[in-house]
């Protein structure tokens, strides 16, 4: 289980653990990315993983499969989320359980979530894959469902084919790896290794593993007496040089009180590629095949005995049903056979559990299933016949009980499409409501008859009457739970259908784009789906309906809120999924509008620039004054040229390969023409501005001269000597000087 996404203060040890894992996981990733062509490298794990390109490249190397990937220097967040989503769906498709890991958390570079995702990948593609090949793990797996030891459903003569065990769970992988280290390396040296933490601090355990694989490489007597750091450094270097195992760990990260277990496991698992136990796998495999064949033969024998018993029971039921006897005797015969069936029910259900990888039943299992269904149906029909043989109105109550029990037993087959399942549940729910609405009236009739033990003086078989009382009580107590469950399931599948459709639409909107017309169609589709159909309002209505039905279901049956399939757990998952989905859907419109804006800017600038270039190329042969006049607004066309390239480069990064190639070729031609022209006319680039500056300069000079002439005239004018006239003269001079500075 990975760290919760709720924020909390981190202790220094947790922060240090994150740093160690970051370094180790980065080195592990880079050791695999080196196989890419060209090689890739992670420098900052939390940053480099955000766009999903590195993550998809890693999964391609590990799986050998080609995965779709949005690439380019100008990818937006919406494309990053799409890449991460592709990676997560690939992992989920391999039945890898992802806990608390969402696309947006990886795009945001949340350390704990990123490390959790990488650890999941390491665990599945390295640790579980390698430990699953260990003979001791195979032996332990054979006692569980991990090994597929059953034959195909059509083969009845030859032994089953041995198949590779399924990868064990994390706990099993850890135990298997630790057991391998203990049994092959440390036990014989008297070295106690009981974990993947402190036991490795001294470096001795690493040397023990190397010594077990290549005995001549290590002088164990010498390493016992050396300091931890020295041992660790030499062990890592030796493993890399002699075994080709990359140095994922730093000595200072291991020589601590509590080394990070995940980092140590990641490193140690690499040694499994060199373990000698594979030499023994063939002989042990043959022994396992013999055991498997023995188990298979025993299973077939058991199934055939079960089939014979069911066939005999069916014959006895048919004979008993035809026996001439009164109702009480007939019911006793029915009940004795019914008890036998119920006593063997668990055995039959266990025998019908498919052990095949494809989930199909073997021929023997299919025959047992058919026989079981025949017997069950015969007993149900016989039971209904006996209830209808009761005196009226008890016969009507009996027939209704069968109908109500059938409704309560009804199981909805979950279709691949959630909307189909939701509609199926809705129809069944309406039918069951119609059946169960008459519960109270039938209860009243039955209670009166049950009290008298007879119908109008006609006695009723006591066992049959008592069984009907128990059945009536079961229907009464179960009906509210059943209806609440059905309403919850209907709302649940409606919500899942809605979210699935929304994710499908989102995926169609965050692809590499096409030409302007296709983007316009995409935007229209977005507006139609999101705005005209009130996408966000519709979710809110559906969520509130789901919430009410979930609360009602939990209130009548609290047990449904437990375990992996718990109701409240599902509600939390819906909220989490919607939070991410709604944010991405909201961002789609702005992205589409930005793409359209760039298309419009690109097409308009290309058209105008092409026309201008044709005129400009002709003007080059004209006299100087004509060229100067034509190119006086060259700076404007420089801006248009830059705008064309900005829009074009944006479209090249966000459009599909075909469109991008056309854009590149068009820009290449236009930029070539522009470059050839500009080299000849660049001197005119600022002619308009120079002319404006010249005029402004002349205007400023004229204004300054006028002010100076005015000031000189005032200074040369005679002034009468008096206090008032002198003060007025000084004020006039100050105003003139101030005007000069302002100008």
UniProtKB/TrEMBL annotation:
Enumerate composition-biased segments (Low complexity): 141-158
Keyword 4Fe-4S listed? The answer is: no
Q: Where in the cell is it found?
A: Cytoplasm, Cytoskeleton; Cytoplasm, Myofibril, Sarcomere; Nucleus membrane
- Ranges for domain Calponin-homology (CH): 19-126, 171-276
Q: Name the chain's protein.
A: Calponin-homology (CH) domain-containing protein
Write down the PANTHER family for this protein, in alphabetical order: CALPONIN-HOMOLOGY (CH) DOMAIN-CONTAINING PROTEIN, MUSCLE-SPECIFIC PROTEIN 300 KDA, ISOFORM G
An annotated Gene Ontology molecular function:
actin filament binding
| GO CC term (a single one) | meiotic nuclear membrane microtubule tethering complex
Which lineage ranks, top first, belong to the organism behind this chain?
Answer: Eukaryota, Metazoa, Chordata, Craniata, Vertebrata
User: What positions belong to coiled-coil segments?
Assistant: 303-333
The GO biological-process annotations, alphabetized, read as:
nuclear migration
What main location does UniProt list?
cytoplasm
User: Region Disordered: which residues?
Assistant: 141-168
Give UniProt keywords alphabetically.
Actin-binding, Coiled coil, Cytoplasm, Cytoskeleton, Membrane, Nucleus, Repeat, Transmembrane, Transmembrane helix
Per the UniProt record, the source organism is Kryptolebias marmoratus
Q: Which family does it belong to?
A: Belongs to the nesprin family.
InterPro entries, alphabetized? Actinin_actin-bd_CS (IPR001589), CH_dom (IPR001715), CH_dom_sf (IPR036872), CH_SYNE1_rpt1 (IPR047290), CH_SYNE1_rpt2 (IPR047291), LINC-complex_assoc (IPR052403), Spectrin_SYNE1 (IPR057057)
Ranges annotated as spanning the membrane = none
């Amino acid at each position: 289980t990975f760290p919760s996404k709720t924020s909390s203060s981190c202790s220094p040890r947790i922060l240090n653990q994150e740093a160690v894992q970051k370094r180790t996981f980065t080195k592990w990733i880079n050791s695999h990315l080196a196989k890419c062509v060209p090689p890739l490298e992670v420098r900052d794990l939390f940053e480099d993983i955000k766009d999903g390109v590195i993550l998809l490249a890693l999964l391609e190397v590990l799986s050998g499969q080609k995965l779709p990937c949005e690439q380019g220097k100008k990818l937006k967040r919406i494309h990053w989320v799409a890449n991460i989503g592709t990676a997560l769906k690939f992992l989920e498709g391999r039945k890898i359980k992802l806990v608390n890991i969402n696309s947006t958390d990886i795009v945001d570079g949340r350390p704990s979530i990123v490390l959790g995702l990488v650890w999941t990948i390491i665990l599945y593609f390295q640790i579980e894959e390698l430990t699953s090949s260990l003979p001791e793990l195979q032996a332990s797996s054979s006692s569980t469902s991990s090994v597929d030891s059953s034959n195909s459903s059509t083969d009845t003569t030859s032994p089953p084919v041995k198949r590779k065990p399924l990868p064990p769970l994390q706990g099993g992988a850890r135990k298997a790896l630790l057991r391998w280290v203990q049994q092959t390396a440390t036990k014989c040296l008297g070295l106690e290794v009981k974990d993947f933490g402190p036991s490795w601090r001294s470096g001795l355990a690493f040397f023990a593993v190397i010594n077990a694989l290549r005995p001549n490489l290590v002088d164990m007597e010498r390493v016992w007496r050396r300091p931890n750091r020295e041992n660790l450094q030499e062990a890592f270097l030796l493993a890399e040089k002699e075994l080709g195992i990359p140095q994922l760990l730093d000595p200072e990260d291991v020589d601590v009180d509590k080394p990070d277990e995940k980092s140590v496991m990641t490193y140690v698992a690499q040694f499994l590629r060199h373990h000698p136990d594979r030499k023994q796998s063939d002989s042990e495999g043959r022994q396992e095949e013999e055991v498997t064949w023995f188990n298979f033969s025993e299973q077939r024998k058991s199934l055939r005995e079960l089939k014979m018993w069911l066939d005999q029971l069916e014959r006895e039921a048919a004979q008993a049903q035809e026996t001439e006897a009164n109702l009480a005797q007939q019911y006793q015969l029915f009940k004795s056979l019914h008890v036998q069936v119920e006593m063997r029910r668990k055995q039959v259900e266990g025998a019908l559990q498919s052990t095949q990888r494809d989930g199909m039943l073997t021929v023997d299992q299919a025959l047992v299933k058919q026989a079981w269904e025949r017997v069950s149906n015969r007993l149900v029909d016989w039971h209904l016949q006996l209830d209808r043989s009761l005196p009226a109105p008890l016969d009507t109550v009996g027939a209704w009980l069968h109908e109500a029990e059938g409704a309560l037993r009804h199981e909805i087959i979950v279709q691949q499409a959630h909307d189909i399942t939701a509609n199926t549940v809705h129809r069944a729910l309406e039918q069951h409501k119609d059946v169960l609405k008459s519960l109270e009236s039938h209860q009243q009739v039955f209670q009166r008859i049950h009290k008298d033990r007879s119908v109008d003086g006609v006695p009723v078989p006591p066992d049959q009457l008592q069984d009907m009382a128990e059945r009536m009580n079961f229907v009464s107590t179960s009906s509210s739970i059943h209806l609440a469950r059905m309403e919850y399931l209907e709302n649940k599948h409606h919500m899942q259908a809605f979210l699935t459709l929304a994710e499908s639409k989102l995926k169609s909107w965050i692809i590499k784009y096409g030409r302007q017309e296709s983007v316009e169609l995409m935007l229209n589709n977005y507006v139609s789906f999101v705005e005209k159909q009130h996408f966000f309002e519709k979710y809110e209505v559906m969520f509130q309906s789901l919430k009410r039905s979930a609360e009602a279901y939990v209130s009548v049956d609290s047990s449904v809120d437990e375990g992996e399939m718990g109701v409240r757990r599902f509600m939390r998952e819906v909220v989490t999924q919607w939070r991410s989905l709604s944010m991405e859907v909201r961002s789609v419109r702005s992205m589409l509008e930005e793409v359209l804006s760039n298309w419009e800017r690109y097409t308009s600038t290309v058209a105008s620039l092409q026309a201008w270039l044709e005129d400009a190329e002709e003007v080059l042969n004209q006299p100087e004054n004509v060229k100067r006049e034509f190119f006086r607004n060259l700076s404007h066309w420089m801006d248009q040229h830059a705008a064309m390239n900005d829009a074009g480069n944006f479209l090249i990064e966000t459009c599909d390969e075909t469109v991008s190639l056309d854009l590149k070729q068009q820009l290449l031609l236009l930029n070539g023409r522009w470059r050839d022209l500009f080299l000849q006319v660049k001197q005119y680039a600022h002619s308009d501005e120079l002319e404006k500056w010249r005029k402004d300069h002349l205007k400023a000079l004229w204004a300054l001269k006028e002010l100076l002439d005015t000031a000189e005239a005032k200074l040369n004018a005679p002034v009468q000597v008096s206090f008032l006239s002198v003060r007025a003269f000084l004020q006039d001079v100050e105003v003139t000087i101030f005007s000069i500075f302002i100008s």
